[in-house]
Amino acid sequence: MNDDFELGFWTWYATDEHRLLLDACHGMKALDFLQSSSSVQSKELNCCPRCDIGDLTSRVEDFLRCVSMGFPVLERQLMEVLDRCNQLPDSALRWDDCEMFTDPAWEPVRIAASSALQLAGWSNLLDHVDEFLRNGVR
Questions:
Q1: Would the pTM of this model clear 0.90, i.e. be above it?
Q2: Maximum distance among all Cα pairs of the chain, rounded to whole angstroms
Q3: Is residue 29 pLDDT above 70, yes or no?
């Protein structure tokens, strides 16, 4: 099957596949965070000692489930993102330290997440994803 995720996204919208759309939207937002620079990541989380990588990876896992039946290239890239997250050492996961994202171990995560977003057509979907999450899918 063609790996045109953007077309699949709009097909889900046209056929009222709300769960798939929301999981994809949340997954892409998690990837957007993961691909961000360390300064953006630190600012967005603001030293959150209750945070952990689990919330981000669970959103990516949900997105992975959405694409697993029809988008093999994106599926492989999402698995790469999850693998990179799972390889982060404890030293890169100090959630009470605002500087944790400066750890060089985050760079492969950023690269993998950026590649996944590119495959998903993020630049064309970004505004729609934000609108869907803000207003709910209709």
A1: yes
A2: 45
A3: yes
Helices (H), 68-106: 72-86
Exposure pattern of 32-68 as b/e (b: 16+ CB <10 Å)?
bebbbebeebbeeeeeeeeeeeeebbebbbbbbebbe
Contact indicator for 5, 71 with CB cutoff of 8 Å: yes
- Tokens linked to 94: 């100090």
Angle (CA) 119 131 19, round 5° = 70
Name the nearest CA neighbour of 6 among 74, 60, 100. Answer: 74
Say how far apart CA 102 and CA 136 lie, in whole Å: 34
Report the distance separating Cα 113 and Cα 30, nearest Å.
Answer: 9
